Amino acid sequence: MIRVQTEDFDIGAEITRIGADNTEIGGLASFVGLVRDYAGDEKISAMTLEHYPGMTEKELFKLETEARERWDLQEVLIVHRYGRLKPGDRIVLVVTASAHRKASLESCQFLIDWLKTKAPFWKLEDRESGAKWVDSREQDTVAADKWV
Amino acid sequence: MIRVQTEDFDIGAEITRIGADNTEIGGLASFVGLVRDYAGDEKISAMTLEHYPGMTEKELFKLETEARERWDLQEVLIVHRYGRLKPGDRIVLVVTASAHRKASLESCQFLIDWLKTKAPFWKLEDRESGAKWVDSREQDTVAADKWV
Amino acid sequence: MQVLYFGWVKSRIGISKETLSPPLEVTNVVTLIDWLKGQGDGYAAAFNDAASLRVAVNQEVAPLDTVISDDDEVAIFSPMTGG
Amino acid sequence: MQVLYFGWVKSRIGISKETLSPPLEVTNVVTLIDWLKGQGDGYAAAFNDAASLRVAVNQEVAPLDTVISDDDEVAIFSPMTGG
Fold it and tell me: I want to staple B98 with a disulfide (CB 3.0 to 4.6 A). Which of A148, B103, B140, C55 is the partner?
Protein backbone atom coordinates (compact mmCIF):
# COMPACT_ATOMS: atom_id res chain seq x y z
CA MET A 1 0.00 0.00 0.00
CA ILE A 2 1.23 3.50 -0.76
CA ARG A 3 0.21 6.89 0.59
CA VAL A 4 1.38 10.40 -0.28
CA GLN A 5 0.24 12.94 2.26
CA THR A 6 1.05 16.14 4.11
CA GLU A 7 -0.02 14.77 7.52
CA ASP A 8 2.32 13.02 9.92
CA PHE A 9 2.00 9.25 10.43
CA ASP A 10 1.97 7.12 13.57
CA ILE A 11 4.79 4.59 13.24
CA GLY A 12 3.47 2.19 15.87
CA ALA A 13 -0.08 2.24 14.53
CA GLU A 14 1.12 1.62 10.97
CA ILE A 15 3.41 -1.26 11.88
CA THR A 16 0.88 -2.80 14.26
CA ARG A 17 -1.89 -2.61 11.65
CA ILE A 18 0.32 -4.43 9.15
CA GLY A 19 1.10 -7.20 11.61
CA ALA A 20 -2.45 -7.55 12.90
CA ASP A 21 -4.38 -10.75 12.17
CA ASN A 22 -1.64 -12.20 10.03
CA THR A 23 0.13 -14.92 11.96
CA GLU A 24 2.13 -15.94 8.89
CA ILE A 25 4.35 -12.90 9.40
CA GLY A 26 7.61 -13.66 11.18
CA GLY A 27 9.48 -10.44 10.44
CA LEU A 28 8.53 -6.80 10.12
CA ALA A 29 11.24 -4.43 8.93
CA SER A 30 10.76 -0.69 8.86
CA PHE A 31 12.61 2.48 8.05
CA VAL A 32 11.71 6.03 9.02
CA GLY A 33 13.42 9.00 7.39
CA LEU A 34 13.58 12.21 9.45
CA VAL A 35 14.48 15.84 8.78
CA ARG A 36 17.90 16.61 10.25
CA ASP A 37 18.69 20.06 11.59
CA TYR A 38 21.88 20.52 9.62
CA ALA A 39 23.34 19.97 6.15
CA GLY A 40 27.10 20.00 5.99
CA ASP A 41 28.03 22.80 8.41
CA GLU A 42 24.82 24.74 8.07
CA LYS A 43 21.77 24.80 10.31
CA ILE A 44 18.47 24.03 8.67
CA SER A 45 15.27 25.60 10.00
CA ALA A 46 12.82 23.83 7.69
CA MET A 47 12.57 21.59 4.65
CA THR A 48 9.85 21.83 2.00
CA LEU A 49 9.17 18.71 -0.03
CA GLU A 50 7.45 19.09 -3.36
CA HIS A 51 6.37 16.21 -5.51
CA TYR A 52 4.78 15.47 -8.87
CA PRO A 53 1.16 14.55 -8.15
CA GLY A 54 0.07 11.70 -10.36
CA MET A 55 3.56 10.51 -11.20
CA THR A 56 4.46 10.08 -7.53
CA GLU A 57 1.69 7.59 -6.85
CA LYS A 58 2.56 5.67 -10.04
CA GLU A 59 6.25 5.49 -9.15
CA LEU A 60 5.60 4.37 -5.57
CA PHE A 61 3.20 1.73 -6.85
CA LYS A 62 5.89 0.54 -9.29
CA LEU A 63 8.37 0.31 -6.41
CA GLU A 64 5.94 -1.73 -4.33
CA THR A 65 5.27 -4.04 -7.28
CA GLU A 66 8.98 -4.47 -7.94
CA ALA A 67 9.62 -5.37 -4.27
CA ARG A 68 6.80 -7.91 -4.27
CA GLU A 69 8.21 -9.52 -7.43
CA ARG A 70 11.71 -9.78 -5.98
CA TRP A 71 10.80 -11.00 -2.49
CA ASP A 72 8.05 -13.09 -0.95
CA LEU A 73 6.31 -10.37 1.05
CA GLN A 74 3.13 -10.47 3.08
CA GLU A 75 2.77 -6.69 3.22
CA VAL A 76 4.39 -3.53 1.89
CA LEU A 77 3.65 -0.01 3.08
CA ILE A 78 5.20 3.21 1.81
CA VAL A 79 4.05 6.52 3.31
CA HIS A 80 5.76 9.64 1.96
CA ARG A 81 5.00 13.14 3.15
CA TYR A 82 5.29 16.41 1.25
CA GLY A 83 4.93 20.06 2.23
CA ARG A 84 6.82 22.07 4.81
CA LEU A 85 8.56 20.07 7.55
CA LYS A 86 10.68 21.00 10.56
CA PRO A 87 13.83 19.29 11.89
CA GLY A 88 12.84 16.11 13.70
CA ASP A 89 9.73 15.66 11.55
CA ARG A 90 9.13 12.32 9.86
CA ILE A 91 9.42 12.32 6.04
CA VAL A 92 8.96 8.74 4.95
CA LEU A 93 7.99 5.35 6.35
CA VAL A 94 8.69 2.02 4.68
CA VAL A 95 7.39 -1.19 6.26
CA THR A 96 7.77 -4.69 4.83
CA ALA A 97 6.51 -7.95 6.29
CA SER A 98 7.53 -11.50 5.46
CA ALA A 99 7.51 -15.01 6.90
CA HIS A 100 11.30 -14.98 7.35
CA ARG A 101 13.37 -11.95 8.24
CA LYS A 102 15.63 -11.88 5.17
CA ALA A 103 12.90 -10.85 2.71
CA SER A 104 11.58 -8.04 4.89
CA LEU A 105 15.02 -6.65 5.76
CA GLU A 106 16.33 -6.72 2.19
CA SER A 107 13.19 -5.35 0.59
CA CYS A 108 13.00 -2.51 3.13
CA GLN A 109 16.54 -1.47 2.23
CA PHE A 110 15.76 -1.86 -1.49
CA LEU A 111 12.68 0.35 -1.25
CA ILE A 112 14.38 3.17 0.59
CA ASP A 113 17.39 3.02 -1.78
CA TRP A 114 15.13 3.30 -4.82
CA LEU A 115 12.87 5.93 -3.26
CA LYS A 116 15.94 8.16 -2.99
CA THR A 117 16.53 8.28 -6.74
CA LYS A 118 13.27 7.18 -8.39
CA ALA A 119 10.48 8.86 -6.46
CA PRO A 120 9.64 12.31 -7.85
CA PHE A 121 10.25 14.39 -4.74
CA TRP A 122 12.42 17.46 -4.40
CA LYS A 123 13.64 18.97 -1.14
CA LEU A 124 14.14 22.67 -0.54
CA GLU A 125 16.13 23.46 2.61
CA ASP A 126 15.76 26.70 4.54
CA ARG A 127 19.39 27.30 5.44
CA GLU A 128 20.97 30.19 7.29
CA SER A 129 22.42 31.31 3.93
CA GLY A 130 19.07 31.03 2.15
CA ALA A 131 16.91 28.44 0.41
CA LYS A 132 18.76 25.60 -1.28
CA TRP A 133 17.55 22.59 -3.27
CA VAL A 134 19.02 19.36 -1.95
CA ASP A 135 21.40 17.85 -4.51
CA SER A 136 21.21 14.21 -5.44
CA ARG A 137 24.10 12.36 -3.84
CA GLU A 138 26.49 10.16 -5.77
CA GLN A 139 26.28 7.53 -3.00
CA ASP A 140 22.51 7.39 -3.39
CA THR A 141 22.93 6.53 -7.06
CA VAL A 142 25.47 3.86 -6.13
CA ALA A 143 23.10 2.44 -3.51
CA ALA A 144 20.22 2.39 -6.00
CA ASP A 145 22.30 0.78 -8.76
CA LYS A 146 23.28 -2.04 -6.41
CA TRP A 147 19.76 -3.46 -6.90
CA VAL A 148 19.70 -3.31 -10.70
CA MET B 1 20.04 0.09 25.39
CA ILE B 2 19.04 -3.50 25.98
CA ARG B 3 16.06 -5.03 27.76
CA VAL B 4 15.12 -8.63 28.45
CA GLN B 5 11.55 -8.97 29.62
CA THR B 6 8.38 -11.07 29.62
CA GLU B 7 6.10 -8.10 28.89
CA ASP B 8 5.14 -6.98 25.39
CA PHE B 9 6.60 -3.76 24.01
CA ASP B 10 4.99 -0.84 22.15
CA ILE B 11 6.81 -0.49 18.82
CA GLY B 12 5.67 3.05 18.13
CA ALA B 13 6.49 4.29 21.63
CA GLU B 14 9.96 2.72 21.51
CA ILE B 15 10.83 4.11 18.08
CA THR B 16 9.37 7.53 18.85
CA ARG B 17 11.27 7.75 22.15
CA ILE B 18 14.53 7.01 20.33
CA GLY B 19 13.91 9.70 17.75
CA ALA B 20 12.68 12.30 20.23
CA ASP B 21 14.76 15.43 20.83
CA ASN B 22 17.57 14.27 18.58
CA THR B 23 17.45 16.22 15.35
CA GLU B 24 20.76 14.74 14.23
CA ILE B 25 18.97 11.49 13.39
CA GLY B 26 18.11 11.14 9.71
CA GLY B 27 17.26 7.43 9.66
CA LEU B 28 15.60 5.00 12.05
CA ALA B 29 15.64 1.34 11.07
CA SER B 30 13.76 -1.29 13.00
CA PHE B 31 12.97 -4.96 12.96
CA VAL B 32 10.26 -6.81 14.84
CA GLY B 33 10.27 -10.61 15.09
CA LEU B 34 6.89 -12.29 15.58
CA VAL B 35 5.69 -15.78 16.47
CA ARG B 36 4.35 -17.51 13.37
CA ASP B 37 1.49 -19.99 13.62
CA TYR B 38 3.21 -22.74 11.70
CA ALA B 39 6.58 -24.45 11.35
CA GLY B 40 7.00 -26.47 8.19
CA ASP B 41 3.60 -28.09 7.73
CA GLU B 42 2.63 -28.09 11.38
CA LYS B 43 0.43 -25.68 13.27
CA ILE B 44 1.95 -24.06 16.35
CA SER B 45 -0.28 -23.11 19.27
CA ALA B 46 2.40 -21.45 21.42
CA MET B 47 6.13 -20.85 21.73
CA THR B 48 8.04 -20.72 25.00
CA LEU B 49 11.30 -18.83 25.00
CA GLU B 50 13.80 -19.59 27.70
CA HIS B 51 17.02 -17.72 28.18
CA TYR B 52 20.14 -17.72 30.33
CA PRO B 53 19.70 -14.88 32.84
CA GLY B 54 22.97 -13.09 33.39
CA MET B 55 24.57 -14.28 30.18
CA THR B 56 21.73 -12.92 28.02
CA GLU B 57 22.19 -9.34 29.19
CA LYS B 58 25.97 -9.62 28.72
CA GLU B 59 25.62 -10.97 25.20
CA LEU B 60 23.08 -8.34 24.15
CA PHE B 61 25.32 -5.63 25.57
CA LYS B 62 28.24 -7.07 23.56
CA LEU B 63 26.10 -6.99 20.42
CA GLU B 64 25.16 -3.37 21.00
CA THR B 65 28.79 -2.45 21.62
CA GLU B 66 29.90 -4.26 18.47
CA ALA B 67 27.28 -2.44 16.37
CA ARG B 68 28.33 0.93 17.78
CA GLU B 69 31.96 0.17 16.95
CA ARG B 70 31.17 -0.82 13.39
CA TRP B 71 28.72 1.96 12.54
CA ASP B 72 28.24 5.57 13.54
CA LEU B 73 24.99 5.21 15.48
CA GLN B 74 23.03 7.71 17.50
CA GLU B 75 20.95 5.08 19.28
CA VAL B 76 20.62 1.32 19.58
CA LEU B 77 17.74 -0.51 21.24
CA ILE B 78 17.31 -4.26 21.62
CA VAL B 79 14.24 -5.58 23.44
CA HIS B 80 13.96 -9.37 23.68
CA ARG B 81 11.08 -11.17 25.33
CA TYR B 82 11.06 -14.57 27.00
CA GLY B 83 8.33 -16.78 28.45
CA ARG B 84 5.26 -18.22 26.80
CA LEU B 85 4.06 -16.48 23.64
CA LYS B 86 1.21 -17.06 21.21
CA PRO B 87 1.21 -16.82 17.39
CA GLY B 88 1.22 -13.16 16.38
CA ASP B 89 3.01 -12.11 19.57
CA ARG B 90 6.09 -9.93 19.29
CA ILE B 91 9.39 -11.61 20.28
CA VAL B 92 12.12 -9.11 19.61
CA LEU B 93 12.59 -5.48 18.63
CA VAL B 94 15.76 -3.97 17.21
CA VAL B 95 15.95 -0.23 16.54
CA THR B 96 18.97 1.66 15.26
CA ALA B 97 19.30 5.37 14.57
CA SER B 98 21.89 7.22 12.53
CA ALA B 99 22.46 10.48 10.66
CA HIS B 100 22.38 8.71 7.28
CA ARG B 101 20.25 5.71 6.45
CA LYS B 102 23.03 3.27 5.53
CA ALA B 103 24.37 2.88 9.08
CA SER B 104 20.97 2.30 10.64
CA LEU B 105 19.81 -0.17 7.97
CA GLU B 106 23.01 -2.21 7.98
CA SER B 107 23.41 -2.31 11.75
CA CYS B 108 19.78 -3.34 12.23
CA GLN B 109 20.32 -6.29 9.91
CA PHE B 110 23.63 -7.11 11.61
CA LEU B 111 22.04 -7.12 15.07
CA ILE B 112 19.17 -9.40 14.14
CA ASP B 113 21.53 -11.76 12.27
CA TRP B 114 23.80 -12.05 15.31
CA LEU B 115 20.92 -12.28 17.79
CA LYS B 116 19.82 -15.43 15.96
CA THR B 117 23.00 -17.32 16.71
CA LYS B 118 24.70 -15.50 19.61
CA ALA B 119 21.94 -14.58 22.03
CA PRO B 120 21.29 -17.36 24.59
CA PHE B 121 17.63 -17.98 23.87
CA TRP B 122 15.96 -21.29 23.12
CA LYS B 123 12.50 -21.74 21.62
CA LEU B 124 10.14 -24.57 22.48
CA GLU B 125 7.21 -24.89 20.09
CA ASP B 126 3.87 -26.41 21.08
CA ARG B 127 3.10 -28.32 17.90
CA GLU B 128 0.18 -30.58 17.11
CA SER B 129 2.58 -33.51 17.41
CA GLY B 130 3.98 -32.35 20.74
CA ALA B 131 6.62 -29.99 22.13
CA LYS B 132 9.67 -29.43 19.93
CA TRP B 133 12.79 -27.34 20.42
CA VAL B 134 13.46 -25.09 17.44
CA ASP B 135 16.60 -26.16 15.61
CA SER B 136 19.25 -23.69 14.64
CA ARG B 137 19.08 -23.09 10.90
CA GLU B 138 22.08 -23.41 8.62
CA GLN B 139 21.04 -20.20 6.82
CA ASP B 140 21.12 -18.33 10.15
CA THR B 141 24.73 -19.37 10.63
CA VAL B 142 25.52 -18.25 7.09
CA ALA B 143 23.80 -14.90 7.70
CA ALA B 144 25.70 -14.41 10.96
CA ASP B 145 29.06 -15.36 9.42
CA LYS B 146 28.59 -12.75 6.69
CA TRP B 147 29.42 -10.09 9.31
CA VAL B 148 32.59 -11.70 10.65
CA MET C 1 1.45 20.65 -24.59
CA GLN C 2 1.47 20.65 -20.80
CA VAL C 3 4.95 21.34 -19.46
CA LEU C 4 5.81 21.05 -15.75
CA TYR C 5 8.94 22.04 -13.87
CA PHE C 6 10.22 20.80 -10.51
CA GLY C 7 13.18 21.38 -8.21
CA TRP C 8 15.69 24.03 -9.22
CA VAL C 9 14.36 23.97 -12.79
CA LYS C 10 11.12 25.38 -11.43
CA SER C 11 12.91 27.91 -9.21
CA ARG C 12 14.98 29.26 -12.07
CA ILE C 13 12.08 29.51 -14.51
CA GLY C 14 9.78 30.88 -11.83
CA ILE C 15 6.70 28.89 -12.77
CA SER C 16 5.68 25.29 -12.11
CA LYS C 17 3.42 24.58 -15.08
CA GLU C 18 2.51 26.06 -18.44
CA THR C 19 0.61 25.13 -21.58
CA LEU C 20 2.79 25.61 -24.64
CA SER C 21 2.35 25.41 -28.40
CA PRO C 22 5.91 24.95 -29.56
CA PRO C 23 6.85 25.40 -33.23
CA LEU C 24 7.05 22.47 -35.63
CA GLU C 25 10.78 21.94 -35.19
CA VAL C 26 10.12 20.80 -31.61
CA THR C 27 9.77 17.04 -32.04
CA ASN C 28 11.41 15.65 -28.90
CA VAL C 29 12.48 16.82 -25.43
CA VAL C 30 15.91 18.00 -26.62
CA THR C 31 14.42 20.31 -29.23
CA LEU C 32 11.78 21.47 -26.74
CA ILE C 33 14.52 22.48 -24.31
CA ASP C 34 16.50 24.21 -27.07
CA TRP C 35 13.45 26.24 -28.02
CA LEU C 36 12.61 27.08 -24.38
CA LYS C 37 16.15 28.37 -23.81
CA GLY C 38 15.31 31.24 -26.15
CA GLN C 39 12.20 32.21 -24.15
CA GLY C 40 14.02 34.17 -21.44
CA ASP C 41 16.93 34.29 -19.01
CA GLY C 42 15.16 32.05 -16.49
CA TYR C 43 14.80 29.28 -19.06
CA ALA C 44 18.39 29.71 -20.18
CA ALA C 45 19.58 29.38 -16.56
CA ALA C 46 17.32 26.41 -15.86
CA PHE C 47 18.50 24.43 -18.86
CA ASN C 48 22.15 25.51 -18.80
CA ASP C 49 23.40 22.22 -17.32
CA ALA C 50 21.81 19.64 -19.61
CA ALA C 51 23.53 16.70 -17.89
CA SER C 52 21.70 17.46 -14.65
CA LEU C 53 18.24 17.60 -16.21
CA ARG C 54 15.75 14.77 -15.80
CA VAL C 55 12.61 14.30 -17.83
CA ALA C 56 9.27 12.55 -17.57
CA VAL C 57 6.82 12.19 -20.44
CA ASN C 58 3.25 11.41 -19.44
CA GLN C 59 4.41 10.83 -15.87
CA GLU C 60 7.02 8.21 -16.77
CA VAL C 61 10.76 8.86 -16.62
CA ALA C 62 11.95 9.18 -20.22
CA PRO C 63 15.17 9.87 -22.12
CA LEU C 64 15.84 13.31 -23.60
CA ASP C 65 15.30 12.09 -27.15
CA THR C 66 11.74 10.95 -26.45
CA VAL C 67 9.39 12.06 -29.25
CA ILE C 68 6.64 14.38 -27.98
CA SER C 69 3.50 15.96 -29.39
CA ASP C 70 0.88 18.48 -28.28
CA ASP C 71 -1.09 15.85 -26.37
CA ASP C 72 1.80 14.96 -24.09
CA GLU C 73 2.51 16.03 -20.53
CA VAL C 74 6.22 16.79 -20.32
CA ALA C 75 8.03 17.38 -17.03
CA ILE C 76 11.57 18.70 -16.75
CA PHE C 77 13.25 18.65 -13.36
CA SER C 78 16.43 18.43 -11.32
CA PRO C 79 17.43 14.97 -10.02
CA MET C 80 14.83 13.52 -7.69
CA THR C 81 15.64 13.34 -3.98
CA GLY C 82 12.96 11.25 -2.38
CA GLY C 83 13.06 9.22 0.80
CA MET D 1 30.63 -26.42 40.38
CA GLN D 2 27.40 -24.87 39.13
CA VAL D 3 26.18 -26.61 35.97
CA LEU D 4 23.25 -25.30 33.91
CA TYR D 5 21.40 -26.87 31.01
CA PHE D 6 19.28 -25.18 28.33
CA GLY D 7 17.26 -26.21 25.28
CA TRP D 8 16.98 -29.90 24.50
CA VAL D 9 19.96 -30.64 26.78
CA LYS D 10 17.78 -29.53 29.67
CA SER D 11 14.73 -31.45 28.44
CA ARG D 12 16.68 -34.69 28.11
CA ILE D 13 18.38 -34.41 31.49
CA GLY D 14 15.19 -33.19 33.13
CA ILE D 15 16.76 -30.50 35.29
CA SER D 16 17.94 -26.99 34.54
CA LYS D 17 20.65 -26.49 37.15
CA GLU D 18 22.69 -28.54 39.62
CA THR D 19 25.68 -28.16 41.90
CA LEU D 20 28.23 -30.88 41.19
CA SER D 21 31.50 -32.03 42.70
CA PRO D 22 33.04 -33.94 39.84
CA PRO D 23 36.02 -36.26 40.39
CA LEU D 24 39.59 -35.12 39.85
CA GLU D 25 39.81 -36.42 36.28
CA VAL D 26 37.28 -33.76 35.24
CA THR D 27 39.54 -30.89 34.18
CA ASN D 28 37.71 -29.40 31.22
CA VAL D 29 34.25 -29.41 29.64
CA VAL D 30 34.95 -32.51 27.55
CA THR D 31 35.86 -34.59 30.59
CA LEU D 32 32.90 -33.13 32.51
CA ILE D 33 30.54 -34.29 29.76
CA ASP D 34 32.19 -37.72 29.65
CA TRP D 35 31.70 -38.10 33.38
CA LEU D 36 28.09 -36.84 33.25
CA LYS D 37 27.23 -39.39 30.54
CA GLY D 38 27.70 -42.10 33.17
CA GLN D 39 25.24 -40.47 35.58
CA GLY D 40 22.07 -41.76 33.90
CA ASP D 41 20.18 -42.32 30.66
CA GLY D 42 19.01 -38.70 30.48
CA TYR D 43 22.61 -37.48 30.54
CA ALA D 44 23.66 -40.06 27.97
CA ALA D 45 20.84 -38.95 25.65
CA ALA D 46 21.56 -35.26 26.19
CA PHE D 47 25.25 -35.58 25.37
CA ASN D 48 24.95 -38.19 22.63
CA ASP D 49 25.48 -35.74 19.76
CA ALA D 50 28.63 -33.89 20.86
CA ALA D 51 28.82 -31.82 17.64
CA SER D 52 25.49 -30.14 18.47
CA LEU D 53 26.47 -29.15 22.01
CA ARG D 54 27.34 -25.57 22.88
CA VAL D 55 29.06 -24.43 26.06
CA ALA D 56 29.46 -21.29 28.14
CA VAL D 57 31.89 -20.97 31.04
CA ASN D 58 31.10 -18.17 33.46
CA GLN D 59 28.46 -16.87 31.06
CA GLU D 60 30.80 -16.57 28.09
CA VAL D 61 30.65 -18.89 25.08
CA ALA D 62 33.66 -21.19 25.37
CA PRO D 63 35.22 -24.11 23.49
CA LEU D 64 34.77 -27.68 24.75
CA ASP D 65 38.38 -27.92 25.88
CA THR D 66 38.07 -24.97 28.27
CA VAL D 67 39.68 -25.79 31.63
CA ILE D 68 37.18 -25.64 34.50
CA SER D 69 37.32 -25.83 38.28
CA ASP D 70 34.86 -25.97 41.18
CA ASP D 71 34.40 -22.18 41.21
CA ASP D 72 33.16 -22.03 37.64
CA GLU D 73 29.63 -21.76 36.30
CA VAL D 74 29.37 -24.12 33.35
CA ALA D 75 26.40 -24.14 30.97
CA ILE D 76 25.79 -26.82 28.35
CA PHE D 77 23.06 -26.26 25.79
CA SER D 78 21.70 -26.87 22.31
CA PRO D 79 22.46 -24.22 19.65
CA MET D 80 20.98 -20.84 20.54
CA THR D 81 17.98 -19.62 18.59
CA GLY D 82 17.47 -16.00 19.55
CA GLY D 83 15.79 -13.21 17.64
Answer: B103
- The pLDDT-based confidence of D54 (bands split at 50, 70, 90) is very high
Predicted confidence at residue B137, as pLDDT, reads 87
The answer to whether A101 contacts chain B (CB < 8 Å) is yes
Q: Which residue of A has its CA nearest to C75?
A: A52
User: In percent, how much of chain B has pLDDT > 70?
Assistant: 100
- Degrees to nearest 5, angle at CA A126 with A141 and C59: 45
Q: Is B112 on the interface with D (CB under 8 A)?
A: yes
Q: CA of B25, closest CA in chain D: separation in Å?
A: 25
What pLDDT shows up at residue A20?
A: 86
Inter-chain residue contact C77 with A120, CB threshold 8 Å? yes
Per-residue pLDDT tens for A110-140?
999 999 999 999 999 999 999 999 998 889 9
Is residue C35 less than 8 Å (CB to CB) from chain A?
no
Query: The domain containing residue A14 runs over which residues?
Result: 2-145
Closest CA to A3 of A108, A119, A103: A119
Task: Check if the beta carbon of residue C7 is closer than 8 Å to that of residue C78.
Answer: yes
Residues of A (45-104) whose Cβ lies below 8 Å from C = 50, 52, 54-55, 58, 80, 91-92
Candidates A11, A31, A87; nearest CB to B16? A11
What ipTM does the predicted assembly reach? 0.93
By the 8 A CB rule, do A122 and C6 touch?
yes
Chains touching A, CB cut-off 8 Å, 3+ pairs: B, C
Give the C-alpha separation, B101 to A116, whole Å: 11
Cα separations in angstroms, A45 against A7, A84, A85: 19, 11, 9
3-class secondary structure, A61? helix
Q: Residue A101's domain is classified under what CATH number? A: 3.90.1170.40
pLDDT at A64: 98
User: How many domains does chain B contain in total?
Assistant: 1
- List pLDDT tens digits, range B6-47: 999 999 999 999 988 899 999 999 999 999 999 888 999 999
- The 10s digit of each residue's pLDDT in B125-147 is 999 999 999 998 889 999 999 99
CA–CA gap between residue B108 and residue B60 (Å, rounded): 13
The CATH code for residues D2-77 is: 3.10.20.30
Task: Please compute the mean of the pLDDT values over residues D49-59 and round it to a whole number.
Answer: 95
**Shortest alpha-carbon distance between residue A140 and chain B (Å):** 10
